[in-house]
Each structure stands twice: as C-alpha cells, then as structure tokens.
Design goal:
Radius of gyration: 24 Å
Strand content: 5-15%
Strand order of the largest sheet: 3-2-1-4-5
Distance between the termini: 68 Å
Structural class: alpha/beta
Length: about 525
C-alpha cells in the first residue's frame, strides 16, 4: 500500500500547542509535510505592511525551529497557492490537505474557495479546523454565547507527540523550494526600519507563552484602568493581540490558563494576600475581552461584504467630505491635534497603540475630518502589527458610527489628553516638536502654530457637530428602526436579558462625547 501523505498548510497558525489541524494530520497520516506559502498577492496587498511581513516571518522561524528539533522541516515557498500545490502534487503525490478555518477578507476567502475547487478537481481531501470561537454557517446569534463557552472550556490540545512524522520528501527538496528568499520580497519594500526593529513586538509561540505568563503573574494588576492610557497599556495590557492575530497562541488556551490563575488567586486571597482580589478582578475583565474579540470577528464571518460596505444599509450613502489634504495629514500624524498625531507616530514605529486610542483615531478621521471609513481601512491596517481583519473592520465601522446599533461615540482628542496623558509624557515622546512646551500650552493648543507644530486642521466641536447631524438625519428616517433591528438580530450580542435588549434598541438616538 502507498504511504498516506498529507500537507499541513500553515497560514495564521504558527504553533504546536492547541493546533487541531496539525494534530489531526499527524493522527490520520503516516507522513505530514508542513508547507508555508508566502503569497505575492499577500505581500503586495494594500493592507499589508512590513509589520505583517515581520510577524509572519518571525512566527515561521519559531515554528520551523521547533519542527527541525524533531528532525523534520517546513517547506517554504514564495508563490501563489494553486501553482504551488500543482507543482508539489506533480513532484510527489499527496492525498490530503489540512488547514485552519481562516476568517479573512475577500482576497483570502477567494483563495480558499479556489483551493477547495482545486482539491475537488484533483480528488484531494481538504480538511479545515476551527481554531477560534468564530462559527461558520452560524444561524441565529441567540445561542452563540453558549456555543462559544462550550468551545472555550473544551480542554485545549497538547503538543503532538508524533512530530517526527513532519518530513520533507526528497523529491521536493530537489526543487530547492526552500532557497527562495522570503524575508525581503522584491514586490514591495517590506523591511522594517532600524527604529521599528528596536520597538516592534517579537512574534513566536515561545514569545506568546512568555507574554501570557508575565501578564498572568506580574503585569495584570490594575489592567482595567491601565489599558485606557497609551502610556500604561504597553506594559499593563496583555500584549497578546499580535499572538492571537497570527496564531502563535489560541484564545482557548489563553482563556483556560487565565481561569486557572484566577482559581489560584482565590486561594491566595483566602490566605491573606492583599493583592489577590484585585489581580483576580483584572483577569476576569481580561477574560471577557476574549469573548468580545470573537464576537466582533463573527461579524466578518457572517457578513463578508462588510469589507466593502457598511453593515447597516442606511449608512451606505452617508455623505463625507473626503478632503485629500486632511487624509494625508491624518496618515502622517500632522493634524495639529497632539494626541492624534502622537498615536499615529507611535503606530508608525511600534505597530501598536491601545484600543481606546485606536477608537479615537477612527472617530477623529470619520467624525471630525469627515473622511469615509473605507479610505482609512488600509492605512490603519498597515499600522497594526496585530492586524486581524474581523476585529479591524468591526471596530472601524462601529467607531465610525455606521453599524447603527451602538451609541455614537465622538472622542475629543483634547479630553483624551486630560484623561489619559495629563502630563503629556506620551505626546512629548512621539511629537518632539512639542517637548519645549508645558502641558497647559499643549492642552490649550488650537488655531495657532506652537513652535514648529501646526495649528489644528479644523475646529473639533464645529466639525464633529456637523458630522453628527448627518448621522442623526439618517437615524431619524422613517424605516431606520426596522433596518437597525435587522442588523441587531444578525450581529448584536445576546449576553443581555430581553429587557435590556429592548432598552438598547430604543437608545439609538443617544450620543456620547468622550
């Protein structure tokens, strides 16, 4: 009998722990060949940046090193997926392909459809495995939380014991596929700058575990408050988003290890540890965010077109000014609003800023500068090392106010300075033009230049008010409530009681200025 050979297709799942696709492949086949394909279409995509190439190559190196320790290797190829599979099949036949279910944008969705069609044509079995709390072909959201909880409390998978099955056939080695240069593709400039290399977060399964451990045992105290400030979020935040995005750790493993730590903290509290209760409270708050992460990603799985249009049809013709000069100033951190510019410049060098500041950046672009959320989609995606399409698009639309089932939040950049950086430490770190000025002068900055720092592009209060009027003109239309109700039924959270859900639906006219 012929030896059963399968491909384990690496995508966003560079880990050994809790890897359903790899575990199944090793269990069901005599020979498993890990294959990573650096697609030129990914490298050249408008949402891809050097941060993403760094994350992928860093994670791949870590994964490959672990496989090599068992005597195996990973096939690394730079080409599109279908030509690669065709070449490999011709050289050394295989019977199956194993991969995880990727919740991505149309580019990856179309690629996966082509792979399924190719497999059907060549009589290859294609098996995909769920690795997050996002469910394909899910009907009603009414029981989603129960399904999610069941998935997250199912024990995560251990590191497979039979990794020696991971080999590279000699006939494939003769193709010299691994000789292809993937770290500096010629398609685009994908090298990190010297400054970025010093500050960007490393991405590997080993780094993910170290990051989780330091958070659970050292950094999480004061988490709930600290994550709001761009100053403290770098250390007090979990910093696991990049690892969850590129699959160097799973949310399920993080959730279970977090609750194991919470149970231990209960014992410590009873034993008299003064910080155990506060630590436990922080970790509970963190664990709830794992649920929300999948909740928002589910929206992209349920509504793939949200990449191109607003979830709420009522907002698909919302009027924006789309001033190209304003867009350019926003992208380059030269708006005259210190907190906005500091966050953009921080992202340019580190690939990270905290959630509240990301929300402020979107709100400022869409509500104050009146720029369509579609125009900032790719520029923002390129800035995030932890770019996750489902999270990115959901938050982009929610903060832009085009989902229509949430409170419209218009963040004041000046108020964010007062609340989150009152001594302007973060601002002065990233906007050196302002280092000679006092916090009072920076807070009072309006329509005059401050040294070499520009005046504000627009008046925040006037411009934001004008944009809110456009949004609420749509909310006052005759059929709006019926449209919003349909969006809620399809995409809204079900963790509330029926009474609270009604309250939320009827609260659509409320606005909030932060």
């Amino acid at each position: 009998m012929k030896k059963s050979t399968a491909i384990y297709w690496l995508k966003r799942d560079f880990r050994l722990l809790d890897n359903p696709a790899l575990t199944a492949a090793l269990k069901e086949n005599e020979e498993v060949v890990p294959v990573f394909i650096m697609e030129p279409s990914f490298v050249a995509a408008p949402e891809t940046s050097a941060f993403h190439i760094h994350a992928v190559t860093d994670a791949l190196k870590g994964f490959r090193k672990k496989i090599q320790k068992t005597g195996g290797d990973v096939v690394v190829i730079m080409d599109e997926v279908i030509p690669t599979l065709t070449t490999l099949l011709q050289k050394y036949p295989f019977q199956k392909i194993y991969a995880h279910e990727e919740i991505g944008i149309e580019r990856t969705f179309a690629r996966d459809r082509m792979v399924r069609a190719w497999c059907k044509q060549h009589k290859i079995v294609f098996k995909e495995y769920q690795q997050t709390g996002v469910f394909r072909r899910m009907g009603s959201r009414n029981n989603r939380h129960a399904i999610w909880k069941d998935f997250y409390t199912t024990p995560f998978l251990p590191v497979p014991e039979n990794l020696e099955k991971c080999t590279v056939p000699a006939k494939w080695k003769s193709l010299k596929l691994n000789k292809r240069q993937i770290l500096t593709p010629k398609l685009v400039n994908c090298e990190l700058t010297a400054t970025q290399k010093k500050q960007v977060q490393p991405v590997s399964e080993t780094d993910a575990e170290k990051t989780l451990q330091s958070f659970l045992f050292e950094r999480a105290l004061g988490y709930s408050k600290a994550i709001s400030s761009p100053l403290t979020a770098f250390t007090k935040g979990s910093r696991l988003s990049v690892h969850l995005a590129w699959g160097t750790i799973t949310g399920r493993a993080v959730y279970q290890k977090t609750w194991k730590r919470i149970e231990k903290l209960k014992e410590m509290k009873l034993a008299g540890d003064p910080d155990a209760g506060k630590f436990s409270s922080s970790l509970r708050a963190f664990s709830s965010r794992l649920h929300w992460r999948d909740h928002f990603t589910q929206r992209l799985e349920t509504e793939p077109n949200m990449e191109f249009q607003a979830l709420n049809p009522a907002y698909r013709h919302l009027d924006y000014d789309n001033n190209p000069r304003f867009l350019d100033a926003w992208i380059n951190g030269k708006t005259g609003y210190p907190m906005v510019d500091a966050c953009i410049r921080c992202l340019q060098d580190t690939g990270f800023v905290n959630f509240r500041m990301r929300a402020m950046l979107t709100s400022f672009a869409c509500h104050t500068l009146k720029i369509n959320w579609k125009l900032i989609d790719h520029p923002m995606a390129r800035l995030y090392t932890d770019y996750e399409p489902g999270i990115h698009l959901s938050q982009l639309q929610m903060q832009a106010g085009v989902v229509g089932i949430n409170t419209v939040r218009v963040y004041s950049p000046t108020k964010q300075i007062a609340d989150q950086d009152p001594d302007t430490i973060f601002i002065k770190q990233w906007v050196p033009e302002l280092r000679a000025f006092s916090p009072e002068e920076i807070l009072g900055h309006r329509d005059e230049i401050l040294g070499d720092y520009p005046a504000q592009l627009v008046d925040w209060k006037i411009s934001s008010s004008e944009m809110r009027q456009r949004i609420y003109a749509i909310r006052r239309t005759e059929n709006y409530r019926a449209i919003a109700e349909k969006v809620y039924q399809k995409h809204g959270s079900r963790r509330m009681t029926p009474k609270k859900k009604v309250t939320k639906k009827r609260n659509v006219k409320k606005t909030e200025t932060k």
